[in-house]
Each structure stands twice: as structure tokens, then as C-alpha cells.
Amino acid sequence: MLLNPETRSLLESFTVAMAETYGVKDSRQMFSITPPMDTQLRKAIIEANDFLQLINMLTVNNITGQVVATGNPGLFTGRKAEGRFSRRLDNSGNKYELVETDSGAHLEYSTLVAWANAGDEGEFFNKIQAFVNESFGQDILRVGFNGTHVAEGDTDPEKYPNGEDVNKGWQTIVKERSPGQIITDEITIARPRNGADFIGLDAAANDLRQTLIHPAFRNRPDLVVLAGRDLIAADTTSLLNEIDAPSEKVAAQLINRKVAGMTLYSPPFIPDGQLTVTTLWNLHVYNQKGTGYRRADWSDERKRFENNYLRMEGFGVEYDEIYASFDHIEVLDPDAEKEPTPSPGGEE
Length: 348
Known about the structure:
By secondary structure, this protein is of the alpha/beta class. 30% of the residues lie in helices and 22% in strands.
């Protein structure tokens, strides 16, 4: 299906404007992004996603290297009999590795025509750019929370819909490097407890902090809880069932809720059942300077407008000692019917 003249004209104007922005002759062919423009692109992607604004998005020079120190864990105050007291940050054992990462977001014919008829040229451009930036940002988080390995050949989005084979994400990095920080056993919570491991998210998160977070960091005010939406929903429901108070009061208690005294987040694409205690600055995303390439063009053959962003990218965790997680928690239903226990004689 060919584009109508109005939409084609708008797309041509978009590609011309994009080429002018990046200082190239034609944006319809893959072109290298200058470091300053790559910085602007990364900034736009970050601004399009609330959670990316909270973690560390860093540009590095090398494909592999030591994670960049950004936090300030531990004690930095004391005395020395001679000279000044000082303590060096040490995360020398924590490395990052970048791999080729190719993001491609495309818009179908029907969407483009609808957008072209919905406003002026500026609004059309903004819709395309917002769609692209949001799509690329969401995929960074998909891989960051779900990535388990780097595919040797082609990635398989059908088999791995959350980019599990695109790169290794934060959970996998810590699991491979410091397996003691990740509990992979099946963990259960229920209210009332009735034999479950924990009575609720507060107890589970507090257990992670007290048993797996290094003692020097357990009382840091910037520790947060990252939880799957299913865990938060189930735990909130059980709380509502227990609290004997007017609904307005209950709602007020759940706004800006903390878990075990730590701020609670449910980031996009975090796996169901996962519960993690860490700091937000402990989660890193690395992009190699000078490796960015872009392209934007309408394809008559595939009937879509394609927008590509190729770069070397990877993930890192600054301090494993400030990352503790239950790989998967199952929320038990206290009202579920239990299987009848057979009598000694075999009769119920």
C-alpha cells in the first residue's frame, strides 16, 4: 500500500529535518551520530521514560571495563594519628561489557495517515519522535530487568519477548557474579501466614535487607524496594481485607506507600514475582561513545515508516553488596480450598 501524497510529504519533511538536526545529507541511510548529538538523543530517550530518569545512564569509551563509581557507600569519617582520614571506594571486581544493540521502531500506514490528519506538521513530527523515544526507552528497561544472555546469532523476539537474549540484565549480572545475593528458591507470602515464608511484602523486603544487604549499607536512606505489579496488587488486597477502617483512610495509607520503611517502586517490565532491595543509582546502563547510528525512512515494500538506532550498549551493577533479591515470590490465596486429607483407612 502506497502512502497518500499528504502523508508522504510530511514524512519527507521529517527525514529532511532529521538530517539537518544531525548534520548529515540523508537520514534515510544509516549514518553515524556525533557524540554531542548522541548525548541529545540519549537525553530525549531518558526524558520519555520516568524510571530511566532515576537510574544511572552513562557514556563510556570502551566496550569492556570497570563499572563507573557513582555512589558513596560506607563510612567516610574517622581519624588517623598521622595525616588525614580517607577511604577509597572499591568496586574493582565489577565489570561491564557492551554488545551491539539495534533498536528499530516502526509505524504502520494507518497510524501515519491518522496522525497526518490530526494536526499540523509540528504535531506530526512530535508524535513520531515521542513514539520512537518511548519505544527505545522501554526496551532498555525490558532488557535491563529480563535479560539473561547474549544470543550468538539472531535474537528471537518470539521466544524471548522481553529481550531475554539481547543482553544480560541487572538480575542476571548479580546472579552470576554474586549468587549469594539472589534467592532462587520458591518463596511464598500469605496473610494470614499459614505456613508461608512471609506474611507480606514488608516482612520479605526486611528479610532481604537484614540478611543479604551488607551490614554497612542496611540503614541507608536511599535503599528502595523494586517489586512486580502482581506482588503489590496481591499484598495491597490482603492489607485492605485486614484493615478495619473507612475506605478513605485506607486509600490515604496506601498512597506513597513504603515497604519495610523503604520507598516502593514497580518499574515497567520487572518480572512478576520479583522483589529486589537496592539503590536506584546502583543500576547502570552504559552506551559507548561514538558508536551510535541512526536511520529513518518509509518502506513501500514493508508498508511502514522505520526508525533505527544502532549502538554498543550494556548494563552494570555498581555494588553487589547493595543488591538483594528474591527471584520469584508466589502469593498464596488464604481463601483457596485445601485438598482434603485422606483418612488412614483411605476413606475421606
